[in-house]
Specification:
Number of helices: 9
Bound molecules: alpha-D-galactopyranose
Length: about 525
């Protein structure tokens, strides 16, 4: 089980480096899904299944989506993990190795990952724990766990969804534990997204072998949102609130916001529910064709701040009044509380949220921020009254002060530095990536820990909310060849000295010409 961070802001940051160098010049690090400090807040990104199903998935589509993710502002709002779902289309060669389908992915699965990393995004891939994927079109990992996890590491995946089709006779705990061990052996830190649709009650055991687990069946058939089914999924997930926390999340499935079949109100309510549920925010709509309203919903930083809160609490229903639900139980890092009033009825509802509903003394004088209208009211004593239209929500934040800080949301301009040294003379090369914080607070200056491979050093400079990580290579004494390092950046909580979140990126060095 993961530790719970105690605070987030005012953090000192340090780096821990390790190298993965072909030719085993450096030993591979040992990575444990529950100890890599990945997914300390719910993963955010995009997956194709809800909108597209399997057939149209190919390199062109994924690249267009990646470009739309950046140009629409979703990247700045924190959406990072993106890549193919079952349309990944690999096959297994005679030697048992997974191979890319170059017709569907002409740059290869590694090439697609490089494209995604250069855009400042992280690479999400897909597989299945059984003999075949759900469509039976692709091989599953059964009996190939170690070689397949090595392939995903080679393709430089950062996130892997592992489906549960065609697993007759397999034990769910043993299977996902083996896949975790295989990933550990492959040496690349990867978010493990377990997808057994609740089979085997993963909320009871999966925190030590993965970062998130599907709790329920598919939220819709590809191409059309299904509100009724989504509400059943919400009801099932609501009960599981105790299992969620930093590094281990209940996953009620990819989002349907922005898909055909939902009204604007339902889009907003759905997103609010996913924020309160501390659910992974994996968009499932066609990012190339978003209305302004869909973009505004998906990029509402005040709502995202609830979802990305570092305490990682999952909200729950604390009171029902007819068809109206009052959700709370989501205390936030600054001491404020998130509250959701959700009207599932057919008529508008006037609802009183009493402070006692959310565990606060009636005498408290509190400010109320509406996270959709972006207005603050108060101070109020005893409670507040809100009017909520059918299917609509009031998403609120309640605090003793008028400050409603959004926690740091990390956005990078790239996750890949590629350097090339030609000719026999020693050279000094640099490549930088910039990491900034979208949110109310700046991050303190990052510190570099010792432990870099001998050919690499990193300097950090700060410029307001941006920090530049300058990777410098001196090729003196470095032989011809390809070198690769995965750099890890940690936010360290100052009181406990424990990492608050980890950022990983790749550095490639190619040295040609003998020295
Ligand atoms: C399962 C998963 C879906 C999707 C499909 C692909 O149904 O739950 O999210 O990945 O498989 O076939």
């Amino acid at each position: 089980m993961r530790k719970k961070p105690q605070a987030i802001l005012g953090i000192a940051i340090a780096f821990l480096f390790f190298a993965l160098v072909p030719g085993a010049q450096n030993p591979s690090p040992q990575v444990h899904a529950a100890d890599d400090d990945l997914a300390l807040t719910p993963p955010m990104g995009w997956y194709p299944w809800n909108e597209f199903g399997e057939e149209p998935q190919n390199e062109k589509l994924i690249k267009e989506i990646v470009d739309a993710l950046v140009s629409s502002g979703l990247r700045e709002a924190g959406y990072a993990y993106v890549g193919p779902d079952e349309g990944i289309c690999f096959s297994r060669d005679a030697g048992g190795k997974l191979t890319t389908n170059l017709v569907r992915y002409p740059s290869g699965l590694r090439g697609l990952g490089d494209y995604i990393h250069k855009k400042g995004l992280k690479y999400a891939l897909y597989t299945d724990a059984g003999t075949r994927t759900c469509s039976k079109a692709m091989p599953g990992t059964k009996d190939h766990e170690f070689e397949d996890m090595a392939a995903f590491a080679e393709w430089r995946a950062d996130y892997l969804k592992i489906d549960w089709c065609n697993t007759e006779g397999q034990d769910v705990v043993k299977t996902y534990t083996k896949l975790h061990d295989a990933q550990h052996a492959a040496g690349r830190p990867i978010v493990h997204s377990l997808c057994s649709w609740g089979e085997g009650e993963p909320w009871k055991w999966a925190a030590s072998v993965g970062h998130l687990w599907r709790t329920t069946g598919d939220i819709c058939r590809p191409g059309r949102a299904d509100w009724g089914n989504a509400m059943k999924i919400v009801a099932a997930n609501e009960k599981l609130y105790e299992a969620a926390g930093p590094g281990h999340w209940n996953d009620p499935d990819m989002m349907i916001t922005g898909m055909a079949g939902l009204s604007e109100t339902q889009n907003r309510s759905f997103f609010s529910l996913w924020c309160m549920l501390a659910a992974p925010l994996m968009a499932g709509n066609d990012l190339r064709k978003m209305t302004t309203s869909t973009i505004q919903i998906l990029t509402n930083l005040e709502a995202i701040g609830i979802n990305q809160d570092p305490l990682g609490l999952q909200g729950r229903i604390v009171r029902r009044s007819g068809k109206v639900e009052i959700w709370a139980g989501k205390r936030l890092f600054d001491g404020s509380q998130a509250v959701l009033v959700f009207n599932q009825g057919a008529a508008p509802a006037d609802v009183r949220v009493a402070w006692s509903d959310i565990g606060i003394a009636e005498s408290a004088a509190l400010y109320v921020r509406n996270l959709w209208t972006h207005q603050t009211a108060g101070p109020h004593r005893g409670g507040i009254s809100v009017r909520v239209a059918p299917n609509d929500v009031a998403l609120l934040r309640i605090s003793k002060t008028t400050a409603f800080p959004v926690p740091p949301i990390i956005v990078a301009d790239s996750y890949l530095v590629s350097l090339h040294a030609a000719g026999p003379a020693a050279q000094k090369l640099t490549g930088a990536i910039t990491v900034k914080t979208n949110g109310s607070d700046e991050l303190p200056l990052w510190k570099v820990r010792p432990g870099l491979p001998s050919w690499l050093s990193v300097a950090v400079t700060r410029n307001g909310k941006s920090q530049t990580l300058t990777n410098t290579v001196s090729t003196a004494g470095v032989k011809k060849g390809l070198y690769h390092a995965v750099v890890r950046a940690d936010n360290i909580e100052p009181l406990s000295g424990k990492p608050m979140s980890a950022l990983y990126y790749d550095v490639d060095l190619e040295v040609t010409g003998s020295r």
